[in-house]
Write a structure and sequence with these properties.
heterodimer; A: alpha/beta; seven-stranded mixed beta sheet; B: alpha+beta; 33% helix; 19% strand
């Protein structure tokens, strides 16, 4: 499978069609949400009740990660190189604002609005168990994000010591590919990290999740960050799973910082399976992870009905729901 | 683009030589959201504003607000204001609910223009405009 980065400029890959596809895929939304949650965890921000943070989201795309930041109660500024992705983000924020206004107008009734975007449905389904009061309160406010059309390789255009923290989800690796003769990856990476060093407040932290194509790329990225003065390290979650493996570059000003242990397969398998991490685990752990993650999803009737609703919201033709929906079929095997 | 965001922006091209702010605003379309319509949580708002108060450049904020048609901000901050919860809430509203939907930002040092459309600022620049770095 070819990587998006090798097909050309990020704004060309994430064109209008791709942007809409990206933003409506429930799997993509789920994955990006998880990654963002993990990044926020690694940021170790002060409690929102003490002080909501002012966060920079580099490569914010269609605003999936920004949405998670909002749900935690933070205020953010996002930048992305693809105008089409930003347009999708804008639309989402507009819809949310109008939704809140409508709810406010109908505040006398207990009005559950089904919004146009799919992600709310998916969020309701998969995060019901984790939903705190915080999150539902945040849903009743408009978006706290602002958008910038911007190429991170040109350096971050902010005054020094502006942001409390920075996150970046699945974007940094794009800097490793040059799309024109004048673009030198190492130069752009250095420029980006050097500007990041400037715009973060002292004591602030950055967590940048990225997909390195090779070990050399991961090293190049880490070295450029270290060269400008950052301390930190790379946290690798699920290192044995090709699919689940995630790299988080954690950057701080604190030289004494020690990167935490990455999440591993054994941590998922419950107390009785603490130790073994060998080749065989790759596949088994994925199933274990899936069942832990999706919490007995299976193909229950509820799941079927919800999936059908999601497809309807996308505008597809779906058979009506009847008493036969999800009925027990004769065992074929 | 919110007033909060504008307060942080600077033209980081090589030509601006490390400065490049405050960006002058010429507004074509401004939108002010009613605080009660976009949802409020006064504790959170006050906590946030207190946290960023030392980061904000007050002079830039006052000038930018005026450029968007808002002339209600005091010219300087003082002890009393900073401890007044009502003032802080009003400040949150000014920072977060006043949006430049369409317009232009201009660098005071180089004249370089950054268009704003659909509330999004276009800060894209070519490689040759950028600051040089040793790598």
């Amino acid at each position: 499978m070819s990587r998006p980065e090798s097909t050309g400029h990020a704004s060309i890959f994430y064109n209008e069609k791709e942007a809409k596809k990206y933003d409506s895929s429930s799997r993509m939304i789920g994955v990006q949400k998880e990654i963002t949650e993990r990044a926020i965890e690694l940021l170790r921000l002060p409690a929102v009740s003490e002080k909501p943070s002012f966060i920079l989201d580099v490569g914010c795309g269609s605003g999936l990660s920004g949405k998670v930041l909002e749900e935690h109660g933070h205020i953010w500024v996002g930048c992305d190189i693809s105008r089409d992705m930003l347009n999708v983000a804008n639309e989402r924020m507009e819809n949310k604002r109008m939704d809140v206004q409508r709810r406010h107008a109908d505040s006398s009734k207990d009005h559950q609005m089904e919004t146009h975007s799919d992600d709310d449905d998916d969020d309701n389904a998969s995060s019901d168990e984790d939903e705190e009061d915080e999150s539902s309160n945040m849903r009743n406010s408009a978006s706290t994000g602002d958008l910038l059309h911007h190429d991170m390789g040109t350096g971050l255009p902010f005054r020094p010591a502006t942001f409390d923290a920075c996150i970046s989800i699945s974007a940094l690796q794009w800097l490793c590919y040059s799309n024109s003769k004048s673009q030198i990856p190492k130069k752009r990476l250095t420029r980006f990290f050097s500007s990041l060093y400037q715009v973060l407040r002292r004591g602030g932290r950055a967590v940048l999740q990225f997909y390195p194509e090779t070990a050399e790329q991961a090293v190049l990225i880490s070295e450029c960050a270290a060269k400008v003065g950052f301390a930190g390290g790379v946290v690798v979650d699920y290192p044995n799973s090709a699919k689940a493996k995630k790299h988080y570059l954690v950057l701080t000003f604190d030289k004494a910082y020690k990167a935490p242990q990455g999440l591993s397969d054994s941590s998922l398998m419950g107390k009785s399976h603490q130790v073994r991490v060998d080749k065989g685990n790759g596949l088994r752990s994925k199933d274990a992870k899936r069942s832990v993650r999706k919490k007995n999803r299976g193909k229950t009737k509820d799941w079927i009905l919800q999936k059908k609703q999601t497809q309807r919201n996308k505008g597809r033709d779906v058979r009506p729901d009847t008493s036969y929906t999800g009925r027990k079929r004769r065992d074929k095997f | 683009m919110r007033l909060l965001t504008h307060n942080t922006l600077r033209n980081n091209s090589a030509e601006a030589n490390g400065k490049g702010y405050p960006l002058k605003i010429s507004a074509v379309e401004v939108r002010v959201d009613d605080a009660s319509e976009v949802g409020t949580d006064s504790e959170r708002e006050i906590a946030f504003v207190k946290g960023i108060l030392d980061m904000l450049d007050w002079k830039i904020l006052v000038k930018a607000a005026a450029e968007l048609g808002l002339n209600t901000l005091p010219p300087t901050l003082n002890e009393n204001l900073v401890n007044d919860d009502n003032f802080l809430r009003a400040l949150y509203h000014v920072l977060m609910n006043v949006h430049l939907v369409k317009g232009m930002l201009t660098c005071p040092d180089t004249g370089r223009e950054f268009p704003v459309t659909d509330g999004t600022v276009d800060f894209t620049m070519e490689e040759d405009e950028c600051e040089n770095v040793r790598y």
